[in-house]
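Issue 218. Parser rejects a valid record. Input:
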Amino acid sequence: MTTLETLSDELHRTVKLALDTGEAASVDDAVRIFSAYRVQLVLGPEVAESASLQAALLTAVNCAARTLLGGVSVVGADGPLRVSLPSFHNLGDAVEALGASLASVPNPDIPSVVFGTAQAQRLERLALRVVTRGWCGGVVPLSHKVAPDTTTEITTAGVLAGALAVSEIFQRLRGHAMACRRPVGLNLWRPEQDWRTGDHGPALTRLPASAWLVGLGNLGQAYLWTLGLLPYGAEPLDLVLQDFDVLARSNLSTSLLTTPVLIGQRKSRAMAAWAERRGFRASLVERRFAGDFRVSRHEPSVALVGVDNALARQTIEEVGFQRVIEAGLGRGPQDFLGIDLHTFPAVTPAATIWSSTDAGDAEISQPAYRDLLERSGDRCGTVRLAGRTIGAPFVGAAASALVVAELLRLVIGGPRNELISCHLRDLGARSVIRGAPWPAFNPGSVPLPPSTALQALTAPADIETVANRASCLCTS
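Output the parser choked on:
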């Protein structure tokens, strides 16, 4: 294997941003730039009791440790876990395992994210507060006064809030003047509404019984992470995990469930092992996705798709899935913060949306790539390296929150979106196209554990929504 081939498989996908913008003259220079980025997470007492705040914290640690190479520290990580995370029961042990260091007091000189009502008067101006309210998740500048609300715990909103916290810190460190100075969030129940003032959505009483995950890279692992933080009890989630590839070192920078010991293993088998430790059941399909097989009636009828191959995406409606929820991420320096979500069947078929499969050749005009070409003489290898996508785990995590929320709304009978297109640089400019109601369909569901279900039923909710919950699971 040549040096450039090795570098292509090992290159940190977020650090690649500094190569593609031209600010770094070499890979080492790019790593040096990212090694100056760091963050601290400061926890209030509410975190010890809130599943959604813990989902936000764990997601933020997981994303930040892979992106901000200067380090992640956590202040106040005490108490038991209120979410399931293999193989941990203590909050402090979990955040350390995800790559953070523990601190006893905040450092006023480090960019900060506050969870709950932690005392944070001495923190620097670059500081945010995480907000979770039912299906709504986001961040606000620390100076904004926001009362905590954990009456309805939706961990998927916590995943979104944790991802957006890292996104805002990262963008501010990268020079975006408005980042960390604005409220940023989404309403996962009604994405077209303002997340601070809109409908916070109903409590959950049931969860998906099964799903087919296509692709187990950045997006697929984020889907699995987000599903794993849901409050499944004795009745497990049945999964089919489909991927043909092996884990490379570059996956460490983007994929939330990849660790160094897994490098070289098949993605499907590594993710199945994690899913089974979580208490799920997993079956494997180790082949490229194509429209040349049929899903049987005994297999999951809902697919969560996370691949960047246009040929595969063209065929996702051809194999017999009853419902498909698909997400794609942007690629280049200006677009890598972009997210597009589609659901199928839709007005526009998948084969039409991805009718073009021509990705074009990558540019090698930037200094780092010209230097690699001159030193190696390998034009094909340099073009291949330059063509690798920029990726950031917090973008995949935010996309997973949208996708899993779509799945949850399918299960409990909520509104359906045919398209959500957004960019983390400006979530206010998002496009949301509501889809016509799907024909009656039973995706399969399992109840929440008794203690969680009791909390859900006693939490404030819209009366009509609760009354209609049982009627949504009708068969066609």
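Fixed in the parser; the record now loads. The two ends are 54 Å apart (CA to CA).
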